[in-house]
Amino acid sequence: MEEIGYVEHYFSRIGVAAIKITDGTLRVGDKIRIVGATTNFEQIVESMEVNREKIEEAKEGDEVGIKVVERVREGDRVYKLE
After folding, report:
1. How far is residue 37's CA from residue 16's CA, in Å, rounded to a whole number?
2. For all residues of the chain together, what is the average pLDDT?
3. What's the CATH superfamily of 2-81?
4. Cα dist. 61→12, 37, 40, 44, 50 in Å?
5. pLDDT per residue over 31-64, tens digit each?
6. Which one of 4, 16, 33, 72 is most buried, by most CB atoms within 10 A?
7. How far from 55 is each of 1, 46, 51, 73, 74, CA to CA, in Å?
8. To 5 degrees, how large is the angle CA 76–CA 70–CA 79?
9. Please, which residues bridge with residue 65 across strands?
């Protein structure tokens, strides 16, 4: 399990997390775990967007929007599972 980024913002109305990628890459289909003070769940990345454009892969430095299955909070850590 490697840390690849963190949650910058959560859009509660649409259930989307804005995630800053700080290390490595993230692809559609990858399994991630989001962990924080009150957050801890896993999910498959079903789609990602940058500026409302669908993308297949995000790399270090990108800020992506990902639909999440549970509420997340700013500062939660994002890990990619093998």
Report:
1. 19
2. 97
3. Translation factors (2.40.30.10)
4. 24, 24, 24, 21, 12
5. 999 999 999 999 999 999 999 999 999 999 999 9
6. 72
7. 23, 11, 10, 23, 23
8. 40
9. 18, 49
**Is 0.70 topped by the overall pTM?**
yes
Contact 21, 57 (CB under 8 A): no
Q: What is the pLDDT at residue 30?
A: 98
- How many Å apart are CA 82 and CA 74, to the nearest integer? 24
Contact 25, 60 (CB under 8 A): yes
- The burial of 58, by beta-carbon neighbours within 10 Å (0-12 exposed, 13-18 middle, 19 or more buried), is given as buried
Residues 47, 55: Cα–Cα separation, whole Å? 8
